[in-house]
Write a structure and sequence with these properties.
The chain is of the alpha+beta class. The protein has two domains: 4-178, Peroxisomal Thiolase, Chain A, domain 1, CATH 3.40.47.10; 182-324, Thiolase/Chalcone synthase (Peroxisomal Thiolase, Chain A, domain 1), CATH 3.40.47. Helices cover 33% and strands 26% of the residues. It has ten helices and 15 strands. Strand 4, helix 4 and strand 5 (112-115) form a beta-alpha-beta unit. Helix 7 (217-239) packs parallel to helix 8. The protein is globular, with a radius of gyration of 19 Å. The two termini are 20 Å apart. The structure holds oxa(dethia)-CoA.
């Protein structure tokens, strides 16, 4: 009997503090940083984002999303035999955010670890969980993307601080004799590491280097549109499917113009693209599971449909997962 993984449930969580572009622009103006709702909407499609309150970390957002996913799957936390958290904004340097989520769920024993692939993190984490389930080393996995990017933004740099938000999304992934995840495809190319990075690090009891996000937006944009088409085609080919099989395209939510370009190249109409970037901004590793959960809960995504999840981000990393929901 073939062994596959399938999505048993989804969940998500956004911190309550929501800032519209106008709210953020007003806060930035106090510091002499000039931006506008018009610029942000026109260049990115973003209208609002959520920021976590002081003291709230990725594990806090992750555990809320995890509880919703467990409930949707009708699982008890005690049944879990794997927890993977994708994050680039962990609570601490170590231990992993996944171990904190495990403890907050009131369980112990199962493996729990983080995956760090920036905005492709959830795609990487889902691919790892799928491989572990197919290999027989897990039956019930929780795969979470959780971020507090507001903590690593430079609010004096208008080219980046208007783009990102905080949040978490989770998927309960179970072993099944029916697919499930149809194909996974992940990549990296470290020569592009400088175009999107947080170059600071901890050393000798201090932070060395700049601990805030730096991005060459145009370089990222150009690379993103190319690799997103390529990885989607690779996943389709691995599954022996055509573009027309895609019922829902759920891309990483960084910029509506990147999503429109990818959809056009894959001949997927925008009505079949799940868009949350307008309300969430870019939540990095959380953006794909947040969008997935939203469209499952509002009834757009139905059982049996084919979903193309794909992401791109710092590293440079990129990848996709094709899912029969
Ligand atoms: O999640 C990881 C993946 N990340 C991404 O996919 C991000 C990819 N990149 C992008 O989405 C876009 O490149 C940005 C949204 C970051 C920038 O859009 P753009 O159309 O490439 O704008 P630009 O960088 O060429 O800037 C155009 C102008 C500049 O002014 P000048 O030099 O033409 O006078 C900027 O200074 O817009 C100015 N600008 C702003 N103006 C008002 C940049 N940021 C702002 C701002 N408000 N927030």
């Amino acid at each position: 009997m073939s062994r596959y993984s399938r999505i048993a449930g989804t969940g998500s969580h956004l911190p309550p503090r929501r800032l519209s572009n106008a709210d953020l622009a007003a806060e930035l103006a106090i510091q002499g940083v000039e931006t506008s709702d018009e610029w942000i909407v026109e260049r990115t499609g973003i209208r609002a984002r959520h920021f976590a309150a002081e003291g709230v970390g990725s594990s806090d957002l992750a555990v809320q999303a995890a509880r919703h996913a467990l409930e949707a799957a009708s699982w008890q936390a005690q049944e879990l035999d794997l927890i993977i958290v994708a994050t680039s904004t962990p609570d601490m340097v170590f231990p992993s955010t996944a171990t904190m989520v495990q403890h907050k769920l009131g369980i112990a024993g199962c493996p729990a670890f983080d995956v760090q692939a920036v905005c492709t993190g959830f795609i990487y984490a889902l691919s790892v969980a799928d491989a572990m389930i197919r290999a027989g080393s897990a039956k019930k996995a929780l795969v979470i993307g959780a971020e507090v990017f507001s903590r690593i933004l430079d609010f004096k740099d208008r080219t980046t601080c208007v783009l990102f938000g905080d949040g978490a999304g989770a998927v309960a992934l179970e072993a099944s004799d029916q697919p499930g995840l149809l194909a996974t495809d992940i990549h990296a190319d470290g020569k592009h590491r400088d175009i999107l990075c947080v170059p600071g690090h901890v050393s000798g009891g201090s932070v060395l280097g700049d601990p805030v996000l730096k991005m060459d937006g145009q370089a990222v944009f150009k690379l993103a549109v190319g690799v997103l088409e390529e990885t989607a085609r690779t996943s389709l080919a691995k599954a022996g499917l055509q573009e027309s099989a895609i019922d829902w395209l759920i891309p990483h939510q960084a910029n509506i113009r990147i999503m429109q370009s990818t959809a056009r190249k894959l001949k997927v109409p925008m009505e079949k693209v799940v868009v949350t970037v307008d309300q969430h901004g870019n939540t990095s590793a959380a953006s794909i599971p947040l969008a997935l959960d939203l469209a499952v809960r509002d009834g757009r995504i139905q059982r049996g449909q084919t979903l193309m999840l794909e992401g791109v981000g710092g590293g440079f990393t990129w990848g996709s997962v094709l899912v029969k929901y």
